[in-house]
Amino acid sequence: MREFFLSLEATLADLREQKGRVRLEVSTTYSFALKWLLPRLPNLSRQHPELLVSLDTTDKIIHFSDAQADVAIRLGKGIYPGLYSEFLFGEQVFPVASPDLLQRYGTPRSPAELLHYPLLTRDGADLVPKWEAWFQKVGLEFLPLKESVRFGDSNMTVEAALLGQGVALVRSGHVETEISDGRLVRLFDVPFPSPLAYYFVCPKGTESQPHIVSFRQWLIGEALKVQRAYE
């Protein structure tokens, strides 16, 4: 019985804390939430304490008629029929490696030398950066001399790079923290924009609701900082 009342008190305390706040259900991919959105949420809470954000992560495209989400952040080409959409930011694609791997193999002096390094490959469709496309960008044919390791998830690919298992080809939004704190090193300053970008989307007609406006404007402000960093 005592446990019941303790649980009830905890629930009531949570409800008191949430009183006066507006819940916002946000749908996005797991990797975007983990690598980009979560580190910025404390800033959102400081600017908009009235918002109570609930994150739902999925790599599938949701249909607002079937889902509980109020808004979504999607990676794509900006074509979302029947929805309100707004461009957030694009990404650069580049190779990264850990300091440990560079100590063992040396820092490559040219893109061609990467063909002698273990290259980590992310399986997948159009959302995934391809080594073939990057090497073509620098004028080389993709004929790796080191057998590549393949992963089914972007976060696993980044983690393998952090562990020094090889060089990963990543989108800039996935490795901001790891590069800034020195755990990963960007190799070569070759401009290679991703063909995809991040977009804010919501059902048409809901974009003017006050809590959605607050979140959207905050999100655009954060996205502008990212975009300027890679211009």
CATH topology name of the largest domain, in short, is D-Maltodextrin-Binding Protein, domain 2
- Helix-strand pattern: HEHHEEEHEHEHEHEEH
The appropriate CATH architecture of the largest domain is 3-Layer(aba) Sandwich
Largest sheet: 9 strands, mixed
Cα distance spanning the termini: 61 Å
- Principal-axes geometry comes out as elongated
Report mean pLDDT, rounded to a whole number. 85
Category by helix and strand content:
alpha/beta
**What is the total domain count?**
2
CATH class of the largest domain: Alpha Beta
Sequence stretches where pLDDT stays below 50 over 5 or more residues? 1-17
**Count of DSSP helices?**
8
User: Radius of gyration over alpha carbons?
Assistant: 21 Å
Helix share of residues? 25-40%
Question: Could you give the count of β-strands?
Answer: 9
**Range of strand content:** 25-35%
Superfamily at the CATH H level of the largest domain? Answer: Periplasmic binding protein-like II
Features:
231 residues; alpha/beta; 2 domains; 8 helices
Quick take:
The protein is built from eight helices and nine strands.
Descriptive account of the structure:
- The structure is a single chain.
- The chain is of the alpha/beta class and 231 residues long.
- It is built from 8 helices and 9 strands.
- Strands 1, 2, 3, 4, 5, 6, 7, 8 and 9 form a 9-stranded mixed β-sheet that branches.
- It starts with a helix and ends with a helix.
